[in-house]
Design goal:
Blueprint (H helix, E strand, L loop, with lengths): L3 E5 L4 E3 L1 H4 L5 E3 L4 E5 H9 L4 E2 L15 H26 L4 H22 L1
Antiparallel strand pairs: 1-4, 1-5, 2-3
């Protein structure tokens, strides 16, 4: 028997039918826990397409943060990544203007610090 783990897609996702041994693909909403084979789940987690959902207490079986907190954390993380990307674009675009470049680099440093804090 294959070991399984519970994952959730922060932005929503699709699990192929073949992975779940079903007839149809499973369409998952953002933050919705789904039980998948461990190898497949770890692959999605490593590529940051999904996060692992942990159990609240042994034997209860209800996932912790199944929607609310998990979804909020995913949205915060996505926003921080977007802020870093936008700041990087500003740095690149302001190569000729020293003042604008300094401001963009300060924004980038702050955005990277916020992202690092969320990922920790």
């Amino acid at each position: 028997m294959t070991k399984k783990i519970r994952i959730a897609f922060p932005q929503g996702g699709i699990v192929p039918a073949k992975v779940l041994d079903k007839k149809e693909d499973k369409d998952c909403a953002a933050g919705e826990p789904v039980l998948v084979p461990e190898g497949y789940g770890r692959h999605l987690i490593a590529d940051r397409f999904a996060v692992e959902v942990t159990q609240t207490q042994k034997g209860q079986g209800k996932p912790k943060g199944g929607g609310g907190k998990l979804q909020k954390d995913a949205v915060d993380l996505a926003a921080a990544r977007k802020a870093v990307a936008e700041a990087e674009q500003l740095v690149a675009a302001s190569a000729d203007d020293a003042t604008a470049k300094a401001e963009a680099e300060a924004m980038l440093t702050a955005a990277q610090a916020a992202l690092t804090a969320l990922e920790a």
